[in-house]
Amino acid sequence: MRKVLFLNAMMLLVLCNVAHAQVTPWLQWTFLPDSVMNEIIGEASGENAWHMIMEAGGYDKDRPASEYESLFYETKFFFEKLKGYGLPGSEIVRFPGGETWDAVKGELWEVSPMRQKLASYLDMAAMLATGSATGDVTAQLVWVGLGRREDLTGKDVKGKIVVTEGNVSSVHQNACLDSGAVGVISFNSPRPYFDPLQLPWGRVSGDQQRNLPAKFAFQIPPREGEYLKKRLLAGERITVRAQVVTERRKYEIQDLVCHIPGSDPNAGEVIFSAHLFEGYVKQGGNDDISGCASITEVARTLKTLITEGRIPRPKRTIRFLWGPEFSGTGPWVKANKELMKKTLCNINMDMVGEWLSRNKAFMCLMRTTYGNPHYVNDVVENYYRFVGEGNRERIQNRGNFSPVPHRIVAPTGADEPFYYSIETHYGASDHEVFNDWAVQVPGVMMIAWPDQWYHTSGDHVDKADPTQLKRVVIIGAASAYTIATADDEMAIKIAAEIVTNATNRLAHQLARGLQELNSANPEGLPDAYKLARVYIETAVTNEKNTLETVNQLAVEKKRVGDYVQAAKKSVDRIGETQLAALEMHMRATAARLNTKPVSVQLAADEKRAAKIVPKQTAKVMMNGYGGTRELLTPILASMREKFPFDMRKIGSPSELQALIDGKKSVLDIKNMLDAQYERKSDLRDVLNYLEILKAAGLIEMD
Question: What share of the chain is helix, strand, coil (3-state, %, to 5)?
Fold first, then answer.
């Protein structure tokens, strides 16, 4: 029996690694038939999306005061696009806003020993740090290096303007608020050697506790800052005049929505999201006007094809949402709780327009976590793979008339491979609103990374590529249309694709486990083996939970359900074989370390945790997005002393919440956290955090 298990394990390990590393050069496939894919590929316009970026985010605008009193430029621009394309349900949805800082004037001139302009808000909006206070100051410059506290020791900066290559916010704190300087000039940049003209979007603020208002801070490009630095280090006495005028503006939150109606209003929905703003001062062509332009082009493409009868109307509605990141998406989702109940999944586009080779970037798909398993991951991955593998020339195809098998390029765009990567979950964008515990709509993110101009003055349309935009639009449109049109046959195809991809994903978890064993010493071998098994066991659970979600799409529930159950058993068999391979390697490792083979032994607290199964209550989703935090905040203050926990000892509190499904034990939850995060969770901290959730009425736990 042991020999059979060994042979099975080795065969599976070899096959899994081959499947992961090797593709058939002439075979790329999609869920949709060629007739539909050809229509989507042909209709999608990278140029149209690029033009939208150029017009809406081609440069950093000095936003006039009138925009705060009516419509922001970007809101008006995209709303007119939606109306022009005749997209149903196009409207501007307004929510209460607040106040924001706005610059009216920001001029920095050297007045001695020469007269020259050093910085102007009108030249580059990023030159004046957000939060700078109104003032008219003439003062001497003093060099302070990185502007750390130790750099200021022994320097007389009071009443002077400091020049630094340090972070503008921290230098403002150290030099202005703590040491009496009247302003800051910084030429700090995240990538000064890559782009010596690049400025980050900086911010300064006062100290309310000490009743110290903010001063002002200018930023200049590293290219110019080096000249100023050399002059000051040479002992030159330089005097400048800074003139700053700023205002506080009231604003309202403005979201845009539209939809492509499905034929069955009760069949569920797919929703796209992208953010128009990250505040109203910082602007960005790629971050995220590119996402806004791309989902607009997805909407136009699908609407055109359906209206003209070139593809059938989908059964499910496809909805689109544009708004301020988090601050706009959150209120809209909260206001549409009933709609969220029938929304199947979210596809979020954030920073998707970059010319990949120029950025040294990959087009990444950020999957959902184990707490939000869903077939949307594998549907979108299918189209990533189709575009990625179909738009590269392989040596095996060099003799073909067209060595690139499924060439997708825009007329004015790059003709290069589609560099792509399928990644584990990452948050920090609007898909997290949908993934929120109180919303529970699984959301994925499409994003290009790295971004060489991320959050800087260089984030403009010239970094975007029409070909990249066309490909992104195709992936988004095809993915949403696949889900929106899915019948029982498509549901079965999606389930099969999940099993195929699961084979690769489980192979990776086996590889992780083998490496844990390879790195272990004799004393650490038991824990290494336990963790290695956790990697595989939790991944198997996640793949099975993902397969379960396919039942959402079924009409003939038994037929699809039977297929899903069979697929889950197949995943179980893969997991069993991998665990056998892991045990075999553990025994070999034990022999290498001159110690005895080990077995998994649960400690007393783990045994107790394995018997506790938390269940969420109706309160979790009662108040919509952010509602759980509203209930949790007061309880945290009153109960944290009784149930102490350290956030740093919990892999992810939000993921911990998402994992509570009434089926997983506390130990299961802890293990699933450990499998997903580099930072391992402490069981006592997990239990105490769950006790606080219980005190808030969000879960029941025996």
Answer: 45, 20, 35
> Do residues 131 and 204 touch, judged by C-beta distance below 8 A?
yes
CA-to-CA distance for 238 and 194, rounded, in angstroms? 29
Separation CA 445–CA 530 (nearest Å): 32
DSSP state of 639: H
| Grouped pLDDT means (10 residues each) for the chain, 702 residues | 44 44 84 98 98 94 93 98 98 97 97 98 96 98 98 96 98 98 97 94 96 97 97 98 98 98 97 96 94 98 98 98 97 98 98 96 98 98 97 88 91 97 97 98 98 95 97 98 98 98 97 98 98 98 98 98 98 98 98 97 97 98 95 92 95 98 98 97 98 97 86
Q: How far apart are alpha carbons 640 and 645 in whole angstroms?
A: 7
From residue 267, give the alpha-carbon distance in Å to each of 336, 443, 477, 479: 17, 18, 19, 17
Handedness of CA 323, 481, 450, 17 (dihedral sign): positive
Which of 542, 554, 693 lies closest to 632 in space, CA to CA? 693
Q: Is the pTM of this model over 0.85?
A: yes
Question: CA-based Rg of the chain, rounded to a whole angstrom?
Answer: 28
Q: DSSP for 47-64, please give it.
A: HHHHHHHHHHHSS-----
- Residue where the block lists tokens 């209550």: 617
CA atoms lying within 13 Å on the CB side of residue 226: 7
Q: From CA 653, how far away is CA 679, in angstroms rounded?
A: 12
Buried b (16+ CB within 10 A) or exposed e, 50-65: bbbbbebbbebeebee
Q: Alpha carbon 89 to chain centroid distance?
A: 27
- Evaluate the omega torsion of the peptide bond into residue 288 and state whether it is cis, within 30 degrees of 0: yes
Which residues are CB-neighbours of 576 under 8 A, at least 6 positions away? none
With both helix axes pointing from N to C terminus, report the angle between 291-307 and 46-57 in degrees, rounded to the nearest 10: 140
Q: Which two tokens stand for residue 198?
A: 């690049």
pLDDT of residue 400: 84
DSSP state at residue 174: I
HSE (side-chain half, CA atoms, 13 Å) at 654: 19
Q: Report DSSP letters for 557-585, one per residue.
A: HHHHHHHHHHHHHHHHHHHHHHHHHHHHH
Number of H helices, E strands in the chain: 24, 15
